Each structure stands twice: as C-alpha cells, then as structure tokens.
Amino acid sequence: MTGVRTVAGVALRNAHVTRLVALTLLLVVVFSALAPRVFPTALNFQSIAYSVPEIGLLALAMALTMITGGIDLSVVATANLAALTTAGLYIAAGGETATSPLLLVAFCAAALLVGMACGAVNGLLVSRVRVSPILATLATMQIFNGIAILWTDGEAQYGFPDTFLWLGDATIAYVPVAFLIFIGAALLIWHIVSRTGLGTRIVLVGANPVAARYSGVDERGVLMRTYLISGLLAGIAGIVIAAKSTSASPDYGGSYVLLAIVIAVLGGTDPFGGRGSVAGVVLAAIALQVLASGFNIMRLSPFLYQIAQGLILLVVMVVELRRGRLLERLRGLLTGRPG
C-alpha cells in the first residue's frame, strides 16, 4: 500500500509536466504529418532550439516572481538594457575588432550586473516601499524603456565581434550554445526552488505570506533576492538576444512580456503564488516554439498563432480547475485525511 501511495503521489506532483510532454509530442506528430518533408528534420528541430532560449529565460524570470505572488513586467526592458550595455561597451572598445575573450567575459558580466541592478530596483520597491509588484514593475518597465531610448535615440546598436556572436549562432554537438545556456539557467533555478532554503521560503511567501511571517521568514529579504535573480535571468536573456540578433535595440521583443506570462502559467506557475514548476516552464517554452515553427512552415497567419496560444492556455487552465477537486480528494486518501 505504501508503494502504491508513493507512485500515486509522484504521479500527482508530475501530472502537469506529463501533460506538457504529451502536448509537445502531439504537436510534433501533427505537424510532422502535415509537413513530412520539412518539419521532422534535424535542421528544423535545431531551429526550434535556437528560438527557445530568449523567451524561455524571460519566462523563468517571470515564473520565479509569480511563485512569490508577484510579477515582473520589466523583464523585457531589463533584457534590452543588458543587451545595450554589451553593445555600448563593445562599440567603445572598437566594435568588431574587440575580439579578446577577456572583453567577452567582462562585458557579459557588466550586462548581468545591469540586469541585477534593475532587479534590485524592483526588489526595493516591492519589499521595502511595499508597492504592488504589478504597479512597481509596470513603472520600472517604462523607466527602463525610457533610459534605453534616451541612450540610443531609439536606434538599434551594432558592432559585435564574432567572439560575442558565437554565443548566439554556435553549436556544440549540434545543440545551440544559447539553448545550453538556457538549460543551465533552468537547472540553476530548479536547484534554488527545489533544493535550497531560499526556494522553500519563496514558495511559502507566495502560498501564505502571513504564515511565512509568523514562521520567522524574512519576507523582505526573500522578495529582494527573488527580484535580483529575476533581473539576473533577464540579463542573461539580453546577452542571448544581442548575440542572436547581432544587434541591441531599445524596443526589442514588444510582445514578449505577455508571452512570458503565458509560458509561466502554461508551465504550471500559479498566478496567485505558492506553486511553480521549472520543468513545466521549460516544456511550455518548447511547446509554444514547436507550435510557432509548425504555423510558420504551414504559412499560417501569426495572428492565428496568438489565438492558438490563448486557446492552449485556456484549455490547460480549465483542465487544471476541473481536476483540482479530484486531486484534493486523492491527496486526502493518500495522506489519510478526508478530501
């Protein structure tokens, strides 16, 4: 009986991830049948892997703040500022002739510091000033966008050397370097959320902030660290964006904020806090890029892709809601408590 309970418990915890795996495989099968000569090819799957990292990193940042019961609407603006930081430094150092690996490390570090600085501003507003996360990050999104536009006069910046662009177009064993960076970041966030005391406190603050305070959790410190990590992830996304697009722009990714929210929620993050799945976010990002690739190959309107995003999200949420009562009853049986 104990073995049955253990297996059932694991199944309950991983049900959402299992459904996302099934959804991704279903999309692959459908588009492979519709476009057998183009979709199920190594080149197309590699193209999908190239497309996932930038939005996947932003979705991870979004999901982490949502687990605390907050949100970070400034992730794209932060990423653009980080990208512009690398561009500005490379232009000052000689542009395409600045090929030193030491400059690559230094300028990427500067971009990450800018991302964390933006995260620190958000963290201070949310944790210390007690501004609502949605209002605080909406305001900083506008501020960061304004800084980027003033800095560049609204124009894209070019001049990256090949040593930097390698991050965006190179592969290792046919896997894009940018995708490996994304997976590495996802593993780090998974470790933080699932294997550290900070992760436990992040979930507790999101699930019940009052109980967290009575338990001695430093809610302000947890929120500050969460938004710092969110800014760091946005900084990594900015580096990937600049390396992939060979430029940095103050208005890149205008639709990415909403898409990051969709991926986070589709991946199993509770918009009200207290629950989230890093594996789910990774799978959701991959699933939506598979969908985008299929629509592109079929030459369908990008507006249909937006509709499909919304429909998938609605279906997943309805399934979650309808299964909620059943899952609670099953948990009650497994733990010996009535559901």
UniProtKB/TrEMBL annotation:
GO terms for cellular component: plasma membrane. Keywords: Cell inner membrane, Cell membrane, Membrane, Transmembrane, Transmembrane helix, Transport. InterPro entries: ABC_transp_permease (IPR001851). It is a multi-pass membrane protein. It is found in: Cell membrane. Pfam families: BPD_transp_2 (PF02653). The chain crosses the membrane at residues 20-39, 45-64, 71-92, 104-126, 133-152, 172-193, 222-243, 255-272, 279-297, 303-321. GO terms for molecular function: transmembrane transporter activity. Its main location: membrane. The keyword GTP-binding does not apply. This is ABC transporter permease. It comes from Spongiactinospora gelatinilytica.
